[in-house]
Amino acid sequence: MMRKANHTVLKGRFKSLLFLMVLMVLVACSSRKKTVSTSTAARTAIAMSNLKSKPLYRFINDWTGVRYRMGGLDKRGIDCSGFAFLLQKNIYGNELPRRSSDQATVIRTKNISQLKEGDLIFFSFGGGAVDHVGIYLNNNYFVHASTTRGVVVDDLSLPAYQRTMVKAGSIKN
């Protein structure tokens, strides 16, 4: 009888220990995720705070989170070229064509290390012609209208952007 009682106690302790170990792993994983997203958010906030143009800062804040809508040009939804079109017009007084592939033809190409606030960055996610545009901010950050997340500030050094970036530069005047 004593053996059975000891076995039951050990079995209960084992279950408790196993439960605690699983709980520790879950807590560790969840805290790691928060650290990564907080770090990304902090770097994005630093890029925004380093903007030289306060009107640009206000424009981005005003549009952040507006959902993506192909052909959209207002707060109900906007696409990437529409966002670049409005930003360039309202902040810098520049006239741009409406489509990203046409916008890519009116820039003076620069090396990524030469980009300045307000320069345009073009991507080809489809593998051929230019099909996406963003606006360079600073320290490898840019703002664009993402098809999945709407208007956001993103890190240009992410592999998805490095693989697909095809051209960058300033508007020819």
UniProtKB/TrEMBL annotation:
Q: Which residues form a coiled coil?
A: none
A biological process term (GO) from this entry: proteolysis
Q: Which SUPFAM superfamilies match?
A: Cysteine proteinases
**Domain NlpC/P60, residue spans:** 50-173
Q: Which GO terms describe its molecular function?
A: cysteine-type peptidase activity
InterPro entries found in the cross-reference section: Murein_DD/LD_carboxypeptidase (IPR052062), NLP_P60_dom (IPR000064), Papain-like_cys_pep_sf (IPR038765)
Q: What's in the keyword line of the UniProt record?
A: Hydrolase, Lipoprotein, Protease, Signal, Thiol protease
* Family annotation (PANTHER family): ENDOPEPTIDASE NLPC-RELATED, MUREIN DD-ENDOPEPTIDASE MEPS/MUREIN LD-CARBOXYPEPTIDASE
Family to which this protein belongs: Belongs to the peptidase C40 family.
What this protein is called in its record is: Lipoprotein Spr/probable lipoprotein NlpC
